[in-house]
Structure formats: C-alpha cells, structure tokens
Amino acid sequence: MTEQHSHQFERGTDGPKVIVVGVDGSDSSLRAAAYAGGLARRQGALLALVYVQPGPAAAALGAPVAATTDEIAEDLVSQIRDAAERVKGMFDVRWEFHTVRGDPFSGLVKAADDLTADAVVVGASEQAGHRFAGSVAIRLVKAGRWPVTVVP
C-alpha cells in the first residue's frame, strides 16, 4: 500500500521565494534594498522592488506631483539597473520593479499580496514624528501577514 501526500503551499517552509522591498530613494530604503538583494541572492528568491507613488489625495494637488513621482520612479529604476549591472556575474539576482499608487502602507500591502510575498523588507523611518504616529514598518509588523525586516 502506498501513501499519497497532498501538496499544499506553506509559506516559509523552504525559504522565501518572493521578497518585497519598499524603495523611495531615501538612504534607509536603499539600504533595505541592498539587504533584501542579499537575501534574495542567497535564497534564490525574486526581489520585488516596490515604489509607492502618492495616491489620489496628493494627485489632487496637481499634475506636478504626479510628474515628480514618475521622475522618482524612473530614477530609482535607473539606479537599480546600474547597481545590478555593476555586480553582474558576481551577484546575480532576479528582480522586478513595481510602482503602485496610494499611501506607503496600503501600497506595500497591496504589492505584497498581489505578488504573494514571503517576506517584506523596509527601511527604518527617518521621520521623527513616526515615533508617535507609527511608521510604515510598525504597521506592517502589526498586520502580521509576512515576516517583516526593518533595516536601519
């Protein structure tokens, strides 16, 4: 008699396959991207770099905001491509760049859900007010949906 095992998807059993990292051009987000890149390389995971563009509330301020955030996204992709090219052959990492609109927390949650992320990496907030109001990182941890790494 042979025993058959059903195959079910279990997060975290074989290491992460998709690592989402939030990037916005800040020093802490670029450190988070570098850290997440190392994790992705060692695990053979896909590195999904996510830039959250300001949503409808910011867009109501006018077209210059949208144009500026598009320029930021283009600059981030250029920086990432340059970095990937510099280490090509030594540290190859599969990566994708995604932009979503909204507030940083909701945008990262949507991207992580859409990409079926196994882990989320973000940079520590550089804004002093977040100690009182709560940072994106704290909100992601409290959501309890993925392992979250906060890079200083």
Automatic annotation (TrEMBL):
Please give the family membership noted in the entry: Belongs to the universal stress protein A family.
Q: What PANTHER family does the annotation carry?
A: STRESS RESPONSE PROTEIN NHAX, UNIVERSAL STRESS PROTEIN UP12
UniProt domain UspA: residue ranges: 17-152
Domain of life, source organism:
Bacteria
What InterPro entries does UniProt report for this protein, alphabetically? Rossmann-like_a/b/a_fold, Universal_stress_UspA, UspA
Q: What is this protein called?
A: Universal stress protein
- SUPFAM superfamilies, alphabetized: Adenine nucleotide alpha hydrolases-like
Q: Which Pfam families match?
A: Usp
The residue range of the signal peptide is none
